[in-house]
């Protein structure tokens, strides 16, 4: 289940200022099905990580705002949480923010013989991603990347 472009825009306009006021960054809003229920899943982040209290406080604010605005025409459950340590990087801003961190990239077509790679994101410049893998630096245009996510060495 996906949010329509219009509903996504409306929800972002409601939720983003609430997150910002709370010192949080809105990462993603999505709908998903779980055990027959519709979940409105709101991912947030902040420098140093998100606490349970951050999630609970913002969840209450979002619930109140959505009760007043009532933009969702169907039944749902709200969940507010962190995007996790393996979070997908969905924008150029997020990619730039995570330079010098370990990432996993999956490509639409092989890049320099690789369908996917894991390494250190060394830079992001002119819509190109540079990933250091052992003795090799792979360079890919952003359009060549199917997904890119943080991939910490645990």
Compact summary:
With 154 residues, the protein is of the alpha+beta class. The chain has helices at residues 5-21, 52-69, 92-97; strands at 25-34, 37-45, 77-81, 102-111, 114-125, 128-133, 136-141, 145-150. It folds into two domains: 5-81, RimP-like superfamily, N-terminal (GMP Synthetase, Chain A, domain 3), CATH 3.30.300.70; 92-150, SH3 type barrels (Roll).
Structural write-up:
The chain has 154 residues and is an alpha+beta fold. It folds into two domains: 5-81, RimP-like superfamily, N-terminal (GMP Synthetase, Chain A, domain 3); 92-150, SH3 type barrels (Roll), CATH 2.30.30. It is built from three helices and eight strands; from the N terminus they run αββαβαβββββ. It has helices spanning 5-21, 52-69, 92-97, and strands spanning 25-34, 37-45, 77-81, 102-111, 114-125, 128-133, 136-141, 145-150. α1 packs across α2 (52-69).
User: Strand share of the residues?
Assistant: 35-45%
CATH first level of the largest domain: which class? Alpha Beta
Write down the domain tally.
Answer: 2
Shape: elongated
Give the neighbour order of strands across the main sheet: 7-6-5-4-8
Biggest pleated sheet: 5 strands, antiparallel
Structural class: alpha+beta
CATH superfamily membership of the largest domain, which one? RimP-like superfamily, N-terminal
Radius of gyration: 18 Å
Q: Tally of extended strands?
A: 8
Number of helices: 3
Q: How helix-rich are the residues, as a percent range?
A: 25-40%
- The separation of the N and C termini measures 32 Å
Topology pattern, helix = H, strand = E: HEEHEHEEEEE
